Amino acid sequence: MTAQRLAFACWGALLLLHLTWHSALAPPANGAVGLALAFALVPLLLPLTIVARRPTRALLWVGILGLFYFAHGVVVAWAVPAARLLGLAEAGLCAALIGCLGWIARPPRRRR
Fold first, then answer.
1. Domain boundaries defined on the chain
2. Are 67 and 98 in contact (CB under 8 A)?
3. Per-residue pLDDT, 1
4. Is the pLDDT at 31 greater than 70, yes or no?
């Protein structure tokens, strides 16, 4: 599997994680599931507007957003014991996504 495909897979898994997290696994205590989904999913869905024309640019924006989601996952894993596994999963997906983007952006090796 190429790094670009793996990055797209991490992006999709992150979307599915947040969808299930905020709707079924650990819905907000105040019952505002729609608001939680809007805050979690809308930023991840925005790069879909350019993915058909410029997939690498879309992945760049997802990677930038992934830094914020990584921080969120670490904070949740640290501060909310009931959602620790969800936070670790989010942080792990974001780390894999950012690693794939670093692999894509590396300069090609020179032959002697």
1. 3-105
2. yes
3. 65
4. yes
List Cα–Cα distances, 7 to 54, 58, 105, in angstroms.
14, 11, 12
Q: From CA 60, how far away is CA 21, in angstroms rounded?
A: 25
b/e for 63-101, b at 16 or more Cβ within 10 A?
Answer: bebbeebbebbbebbeeeeebeebbebbbbbbebbbebb
pLDDT over 70 at 104, yes or no: yes
Q: Kindly tell me the burial class for residue 10, based on how many C-beta atoms sit within 10 Å of its own C-beta (0-12, 13-18, 19 or more).
A: buried
Which pLDDT band, with edges at 50, 70 and 90, does 55 fall under? confident
Q: What is the pTM of this model?
A: 0.88
**Phi, then psi, of 45 in degrees rounded to 5:** -90, -20
Q: Are the beta carbons of 59 and 53 closer than 8 angstroms?
A: no
Closest CA to 101 of 22, 8, 18: 8
